[in-house]
Amino acid sequence: MILYNVTTILDEEIQHEWLTWMQDQHIADMMATSCFVSHRILKVIDSPNEGVTYCMQYTAENREKYEEYKSKYAPEIQASFPQKFANKFVIYRSLMEFVD
């Protein structure tokens, strides 16, 4: 299993609107690719960063499904972030493999 983690650091003023958009639209778009079998949202409570930090985690059955997402869907989905959030967040992406 592969875990695709997207850490987003947001300006506090947009956090509620961003979270609503993630829950109503973005997660549905990600799951509609059929590349991921599950997802979860985590809020970092002891972040050393300014703003509010969330981690979106998507689980893929294998590396091939993640690569399918990355090549077929990622550019369009990543470009779909609403303009109103521009310059108000920073994103870090990482890929992890489950050990046990």
What does this structure look like?
By secondary structure, this protein is α+β, with helices and mostly antiparallel strands. It has a single domain (2-97), classed as Alpha-Beta Plaits (2-Layer Sandwich), CATH 3.30.70.100. 35% of the residues lie in helices and 34% in strands. It has 2 helices and 4 strands, in the order E-H-E-E-H-E. The protein has helices at 15-32, 63-79; strands at 2-10, 38-44, 52-60, 89-97. A 4-stranded antiparallel β-sheet has the order 2-3-1-4. A hairpin with a 7-residue loop joins strand 2 (38-44) and strand 3. The longest helix has 18 residues, at 15-32. The termini are close together.
SS element count, helices: 2
What is Rg? 14 Å
User: What is the overall pLDDT average?
Assistant: 93
Fold-level CATH name: Alpha-Beta Plaits
Uncertain ranges: none
End-to-end separation in angstroms reads 9 Å
**β content, as a range?**
25-35%
Order of helices and strands: EHEEHE
Portion of residues within helices: 25-40%
What number of structural domains do the residues give? 1
Which outline best applies? globular
Named CATH architecture: 2-Layer Sandwich
State the total count of DSSP E strands.
Answer: 4
Can you identify the CATH class?
Answer: Alpha Beta
Going by helix content, strand content and strand pairing, the class is alpha+beta
For the report, how would you describe the main beta sheet?
4 strands, antiparallel
Q: Which assembly state applies to the chains in this document?
A: single chain
Strand order in space, largest sheet: 2-3-1-4
